[in-house]
Request: fold
Amino acid sequence: MTTQTVIVTGAASGIGLACTKLLLAEGAQVTAFDIQGERMAELLPADDENLHQIAGDVSDPAVCEKVVAETLDQFGKLDALIHWGAAHSSARWDELGAEECTRTLEVNVTGSFLISQAAAKPMIKQGKGAIVLCTSTSVLHGVTGGEGQGGPAYVASKGAVIALMRSFARALGPEGIRVNAVSPGITETAMIESYSEEQRDNMKQRFPLGRFARPEEIAEGGIYLISDKASFMTGETMHINGGSNFG
Reply:
């Protein structure tokens, strides 16, 4: 891992922040990318020569191209992309408006496409690379939100990410680029801060392990997928959910 150069999105909080810190601790060169630039700067070291920070919107194609270009300028190569950045939506079907639905899909689906498209270009020239996208266990359950009844926009967007990942895996495999996804269960991040204690307790009952994931536990899955240990793994979804699929 000491020689890897990695772009990590969603780096200002939760899983993306944990992933960035873990990679830096292992000696990787990291470009941390998030729309919350000030928060990211507060939480990540300012004097680490292995860290480059960029603020911007992943649904903007020019920004995604800029992130990749600056990574190449800063570190000379790009080995991997781990894309955690996402927009959450827990509104029920009868509450969800067109604007929120469109924005959720724009960030989660279009954003995943754009940052992967930009990252794949230098990887093709190098003849190798790894891309990890983030889906969600909510795709299996069909719901998200504290009441367990909402989230059609979010669930649909994360289902689309799986299809997108498979499409990229098929197209980029001959170029030596592996593409996989991580599907987290409920994780202790800002996305669930609005849930009440009663809602959290009820949701934990679905988990055989009796708790939510820590961000680091999900991040380690993404780091594994870009490593040589996963060298024959592509087009797959890694589920890390404490057994909630059958809880």
